[in-house]
Specification:
The protein has about 300 residues and is α/β, with parallel strands linked by helices. It has 11 helices and 10 strands. Strand 7 (about 210-215), helix 8 and strand 8 (about 240-245) form a beta-alpha-beta unit.
Length: about 300
Protein backbone atom coordinates (compact mmCIF):
# COMPACT_ATOMS: atom_id res chain seq x y z
CA UNK A 1 0.00 0.00 0.00
CA UNK A 2 1.35 3.40 -0.99
CA UNK A 3 0.27 6.43 0.97
CA UNK A 4 0.94 10.01 -0.08
CA UNK A 5 2.19 11.92 2.94
CA UNK A 6 2.93 15.55 3.63
CA UNK A 7 6.36 16.90 4.43
CA UNK A 8 5.44 19.79 6.69
CA UNK A 9 6.02 20.94 10.23
CA UNK A 10 3.64 19.32 12.67
CA UNK A 11 0.59 21.47 13.28
CA UNK A 12 0.42 23.45 10.03
CA UNK A 13 -2.39 23.16 7.53
CA UNK A 14 -2.69 20.48 4.90
CA UNK A 15 -1.43 21.15 1.37
CA UNK A 16 -4.06 22.52 -0.95
CA UNK A 17 -3.39 20.05 -3.76
CA UNK A 18 -5.14 16.71 -3.42
CA UNK A 19 -3.34 13.41 -4.04
CA UNK A 20 -4.19 12.29 -7.56
CA UNK A 21 -5.74 8.94 -6.64
CA UNK A 22 -5.39 7.68 -3.09
CA UNK A 23 -4.80 3.96 -3.15
CA UNK A 24 -7.23 1.88 -1.09
CA UNK A 25 -6.41 0.96 2.47
CA UNK A 26 -6.20 -2.78 2.98
CA UNK A 27 -8.38 -3.98 5.80
CA UNK A 28 -6.43 -5.92 8.47
CA UNK A 29 -7.49 -9.53 8.70
CA UNK A 30 -6.97 -9.60 12.47
CA UNK A 31 -6.43 -7.29 15.40
CA UNK A 32 -2.86 -6.07 16.02
CA UNK A 33 -0.75 -8.44 18.06
CA UNK A 34 1.84 -7.22 20.58
CA UNK A 35 4.78 -5.70 18.75
CA UNK A 36 3.01 -5.88 15.39
CA UNK A 37 2.06 -2.62 13.70
CA UNK A 38 1.95 -0.47 16.82
CA UNK A 39 4.90 1.88 17.03
CA UNK A 40 5.99 1.61 20.64
CA UNK A 41 6.16 4.96 22.38
CA UNK A 42 9.15 6.48 24.11
CA UNK A 43 7.14 6.78 27.28
CA UNK A 44 5.34 9.72 28.92
CA UNK A 45 7.68 12.62 29.67
CA UNK A 46 7.93 15.27 32.34
CA UNK A 47 7.70 18.78 30.93
CA UNK A 48 8.92 21.72 33.00
CA UNK A 49 8.95 25.46 32.40
CA UNK A 50 11.22 27.87 34.22
CA UNK A 51 10.45 31.59 34.26
CA UNK A 52 8.73 31.32 30.88
CA UNK A 53 7.58 34.62 29.39
CA UNK A 54 6.00 35.17 25.97
CA UNK A 55 5.51 38.24 23.79
CA UNK A 56 3.78 39.26 20.59
CA UNK A 57 5.84 42.23 19.51
CA UNK A 58 6.01 44.53 22.54
CA UNK A 59 2.91 42.98 24.11
CA UNK A 60 3.84 40.59 26.91
CA UNK A 61 1.16 37.93 27.28
CA UNK A 62 2.73 35.39 29.69
CA UNK A 63 4.81 36.41 32.72
CA UNK A 64 7.52 34.18 34.24
CA UNK A 65 5.60 30.91 34.47
CA UNK A 66 7.39 28.09 36.27
CA UNK A 67 5.42 24.87 36.15
CA UNK A 68 6.15 21.14 36.36
CA UNK A 69 3.76 18.88 34.46
CA UNK A 70 4.23 15.32 35.60
CA UNK A 71 4.33 12.25 33.32
CA UNK A 72 1.31 9.97 32.89
CA UNK A 73 -0.99 12.66 34.27
CA UNK A 74 -3.43 15.16 32.82
CA UNK A 75 -2.71 18.79 33.66
CA UNK A 76 -5.55 21.27 33.04
CA UNK A 77 -4.80 24.94 32.36
CA UNK A 78 -7.79 27.04 33.39
CA UNK A 79 -8.52 30.75 33.57
CA UNK A 80 -10.51 33.43 31.73
CA UNK A 81 -10.02 34.23 28.06
CA UNK A 82 -7.00 36.37 27.26
CA UNK A 83 -4.81 35.28 30.18
CA UNK A 84 -2.19 33.48 28.07
CA UNK A 85 -3.17 29.82 28.43
CA UNK A 86 -3.10 28.95 24.73
CA UNK A 87 0.07 30.96 24.17
CA UNK A 88 1.74 29.11 27.02
CA UNK A 89 0.54 25.79 25.57
CA UNK A 90 1.95 26.59 22.12
CA UNK A 91 5.27 27.61 23.60
CA UNK A 92 5.73 24.08 24.96
CA UNK A 93 6.30 22.57 21.51
CA UNK A 94 7.76 25.65 19.81
CA UNK A 95 4.64 26.56 17.88
CA UNK A 96 4.67 30.00 19.45
CA UNK A 97 7.72 30.87 17.38
CA UNK A 98 5.81 30.25 14.13
CA UNK A 99 3.82 33.46 14.70
CA UNK A 100 5.42 36.63 13.30
CA UNK A 101 6.72 38.99 16.01
CA UNK A 102 6.54 36.24 18.67
CA UNK A 103 9.31 36.11 21.27
CA UNK A 104 10.07 34.03 24.34
CA UNK A 105 12.31 34.03 27.42
CA UNK A 106 12.96 31.32 29.98
CA UNK A 107 13.11 27.60 29.27
CA UNK A 108 10.97 24.58 28.47
CA UNK A 109 12.47 21.21 29.41
CA UNK A 110 11.37 17.79 28.20
CA UNK A 111 12.73 15.27 30.69
CA UNK A 112 15.50 17.74 31.50
CA UNK A 113 16.38 18.65 27.89
CA UNK A 114 15.77 22.28 26.87
CA UNK A 115 13.54 22.12 23.78
CA UNK A 116 14.85 25.54 22.72
CA UNK A 117 18.45 24.40 23.10
CA UNK A 118 20.82 22.79 20.57
CA UNK A 119 19.95 19.19 21.44
CA UNK A 120 16.44 19.20 19.92
CA UNK A 121 15.37 20.58 16.55
CA UNK A 122 11.98 22.22 16.26
CA UNK A 123 10.62 19.35 14.17
CA UNK A 124 11.77 16.74 16.68
CA UNK A 125 10.25 18.78 19.49
CA UNK A 126 6.88 18.89 17.74
CA UNK A 127 6.97 15.16 17.16
CA UNK A 128 7.69 14.41 20.80
CA UNK A 129 5.18 17.03 21.96
CA UNK A 130 2.13 16.66 19.73
CA UNK A 131 -0.85 18.96 19.58
CA UNK A 132 -4.61 18.73 19.06
CA UNK A 133 -6.24 22.04 18.21
CA UNK A 134 -9.52 23.61 19.23
CA UNK A 135 -11.00 23.13 15.76
CA UNK A 136 -10.58 19.67 14.22
CA UNK A 137 -8.22 19.90 11.24
CA UNK A 138 -8.07 16.59 9.35
CA UNK A 139 -6.38 16.88 5.97
CA UNK A 140 -9.40 16.98 3.59
CA UNK A 141 -7.41 15.74 0.59
CA UNK A 142 -6.51 12.54 2.45
CA UNK A 143 -8.47 9.48 3.43
CA UNK A 144 -9.02 8.52 7.05
CA UNK A 145 -6.16 6.03 6.86
CA UNK A 146 -3.83 8.53 5.18
CA UNK A 147 -4.63 11.10 7.87
CA UNK A 148 -3.45 8.72 10.57
CA UNK A 149 -0.20 8.03 8.71
CA UNK A 150 0.46 11.63 7.71
CA UNK A 151 3.27 12.22 10.20
CA UNK A 152 5.34 9.12 9.46
CA UNK A 153 7.33 10.65 6.61
CA UNK A 154 8.11 13.73 8.66
CA UNK A 155 9.22 11.70 11.65
CA UNK A 156 11.15 9.15 9.64
CA UNK A 157 9.28 6.41 11.51
CA UNK A 158 8.58 3.01 10.04
CA UNK A 159 5.91 0.55 11.02
CA UNK A 160 6.06 -3.17 10.40
CA UNK A 161 2.49 -2.88 9.14
CA UNK A 162 0.83 0.42 8.30
CA UNK A 163 -2.51 -1.38 8.35
CA UNK A 164 -2.06 -2.43 11.94
CA UNK A 165 -0.68 0.98 12.92
CA UNK A 166 -3.79 2.70 11.56
CA UNK A 167 -6.06 0.31 13.43
CA UNK A 168 -4.09 0.64 16.65
CA UNK A 169 -4.11 4.45 16.63
CA UNK A 170 -7.80 4.59 15.76
CA UNK A 171 -8.55 2.16 18.57
CA UNK A 172 -6.56 4.22 21.07
CA UNK A 173 -8.43 7.34 19.92
CA UNK A 174 -11.78 5.56 20.34
CA UNK A 175 -12.62 5.77 16.64
CA UNK A 176 -11.99 2.31 15.18
CA UNK A 177 -15.52 0.90 15.37
CA UNK A 178 -16.95 3.95 13.61
CA UNK A 179 -14.40 4.03 10.80
CA UNK A 180 -13.20 0.47 10.18
CA UNK A 181 -15.43 0.20 7.09
CA UNK A 182 -14.75 3.78 5.94
CA UNK A 183 -10.95 3.96 5.93
CA UNK A 184 -10.80 5.03 2.28
CA UNK A 185 -13.25 7.89 2.73
CA UNK A 186 -12.09 11.46 3.22
CA UNK A 187 -11.33 12.49 6.79
CA UNK A 188 -13.50 15.54 6.16
CA UNK A 189 -16.55 13.26 5.78
CA UNK A 190 -16.57 12.50 9.50
CA UNK A 191 -18.60 14.37 12.11
CA UNK A 192 -16.94 17.04 14.23
CA UNK A 193 -16.36 14.74 17.19
CA UNK A 194 -15.04 12.00 14.93
CA UNK A 195 -12.71 14.45 13.19
CA UNK A 196 -11.28 15.48 16.56
CA UNK A 197 -10.60 11.85 17.45
CA UNK A 198 -9.01 11.36 14.03
CA UNK A 199 -6.67 14.23 14.83
CA UNK A 200 -5.81 12.51 18.11
CA UNK A 201 -5.09 9.27 16.23
CA UNK A 202 -2.88 11.19 13.78
CA UNK A 203 -0.93 12.68 16.67
CA UNK A 204 -0.48 9.29 18.34
CA UNK A 205 1.00 7.66 15.23
CA UNK A 206 4.34 9.49 15.64
CA UNK A 207 4.83 8.33 19.26
CA UNK A 208 4.54 11.60 21.20
CA UNK A 209 5.63 11.72 24.82
CA UNK A 210 3.39 14.70 25.53
CA UNK A 211 0.04 15.62 23.95
CA UNK A 212 -1.16 19.22 24.08
CA UNK A 213 -4.90 19.84 23.70
CA UNK A 214 -6.23 23.37 23.18
CA UNK A 215 -9.92 23.34 24.14
CA UNK A 216 -10.50 20.12 22.17
CA UNK A 217 -14.19 19.89 23.06
CA UNK A 218 -15.28 23.52 22.75
CA UNK A 219 -17.02 22.95 19.39
CA UNK A 220 -18.48 19.54 20.22
CA UNK A 221 -21.82 18.33 21.50
CA UNK A 222 -22.07 16.74 24.99
CA UNK A 223 -21.97 13.16 23.69
CA UNK A 224 -18.85 13.77 21.58
CA UNK A 225 -17.31 15.65 24.50
CA UNK A 226 -17.79 12.67 26.79
CA UNK A 227 -16.17 10.35 24.24
CA UNK A 228 -13.13 12.66 23.98
CA UNK A 229 -12.90 12.82 27.78
CA UNK A 230 -13.00 9.02 28.01
CA UNK A 231 -10.24 8.90 25.40
CA UNK A 232 -8.12 11.32 27.44
CA UNK A 233 -8.50 9.19 30.57
CA UNK A 234 -7.36 6.11 28.67
CA UNK A 235 -4.44 7.81 26.91
CA UNK A 236 -2.81 9.36 29.96
CA UNK A 237 -1.15 6.06 30.82
CA UNK A 238 0.80 6.24 27.54
CA UNK A 239 1.36 9.97 27.13
CA UNK A 240 1.47 13.07 29.34
CA UNK A 241 -1.52 15.30 28.54
CA UNK A 242 -1.85 19.06 28.99
CA UNK A 243 -5.27 20.50 28.21
CA UNK A 244 -6.60 24.06 28.06
CA UNK A 245 -10.26 24.19 29.03
CA UNK A 246 -12.81 26.81 30.07
CA UNK A 247 -15.15 24.10 31.34
CA UNK A 248 -14.66 23.74 35.09
CA UNK A 249 -16.62 20.48 35.21
CA UNK A 250 -14.42 19.07 32.45
CA UNK A 251 -11.26 20.10 34.30
CA UNK A 252 -12.50 18.20 37.35
CA UNK A 253 -13.47 15.14 35.31
CA UNK A 254 -10.32 14.66 33.26
CA UNK A 255 -7.36 16.28 35.04
CA UNK A 256 -5.08 15.14 37.84
CA UNK A 257 -3.41 18.53 38.28
CA UNK A 258 -4.64 22.03 37.58
CA UNK A 259 -3.05 25.45 37.04
CA UNK A 260 -5.05 28.69 37.21
CA UNK A 261 -3.90 31.58 34.99
CA UNK A 262 -5.11 35.10 35.73
CA UNK A 263 -4.26 38.69 34.84
CA UNK A 264 -4.11 41.42 37.48
CA UNK A 265 -5.35 44.26 35.28
CA UNK A 266 -6.44 44.70 31.69
CA UNK A 267 -3.38 44.64 29.44
CA UNK A 268 -1.20 42.81 31.98
CA UNK A 269 0.39 39.46 31.11
CA UNK A 270 -1.05 36.21 32.41
CA UNK A 271 0.47 34.59 35.49
CA UNK A 272 -0.14 31.39 37.41
CA UNK A 273 -2.07 32.15 40.59
CA UNK A 274 -2.22 28.60 41.92
CA UNK A 275 -1.13 25.11 40.90
CA UNK A 276 -1.80 21.78 42.54
CA UNK A 277 -3.78 18.58 42.40
CA UNK A 278 -7.20 19.15 40.88
CA UNK A 279 -9.09 18.04 43.98
CA UNK A 280 -7.20 20.54 46.12
CA UNK A 281 -7.69 23.37 43.60
CA UNK A 282 -11.45 22.88 43.53
CA UNK A 283 -12.13 21.79 47.10
CA UNK A 284 -9.50 23.53 49.20
CA UNK A 285 -7.79 26.32 47.21
CA UNK A 286 -5.07 28.29 48.95
CA UNK A 287 -5.74 31.56 47.10
CA UNK A 288 -9.05 33.39 47.42
CA UNK A 289 -8.88 34.30 43.71
CA UNK A 290 -8.82 30.59 42.90
CA UNK A 291 -11.88 29.96 45.05
CA UNK A 292 -13.69 32.86 43.39
CA UNK A 293 -12.85 31.62 39.88
CA UNK A 294 -13.68 27.93 40.25
CA UNK A 295 -16.99 28.73 41.96
CA UNK A 296 -17.95 31.21 39.23
CA UNK A 297 -17.81 34.41 41.28
CA UNK A 298 -15.72 36.00 38.55
CA UNK A 299 -14.19 35.10 35.18
Amino acid sequence: MKIDLIDREVGVQAPSAAPSRPEPFEQPSARPQPGQGRVSGRGPARITTKDLSCWFGSNKVVERVSLEMRPSRVTALIGPSGCGKSTFLRSLNRMHELIPSAALAGSVELDGVNVYGPDLKATETRLRIGMVFQKPNPFPAMTIAQNVLAGLRLSGSRAASKDFLVEDCLRRAGLWKETRNRLNESGAALSGGQQQRLCIARALAVRPQVLLMDEPCSALDPISTRVIEDTINELKHDVTIIIVTHNMQQAQRVSDDCALFLIDNEGDPGRIVEYGETRQIFQNPRDQRTADYVTGRFG
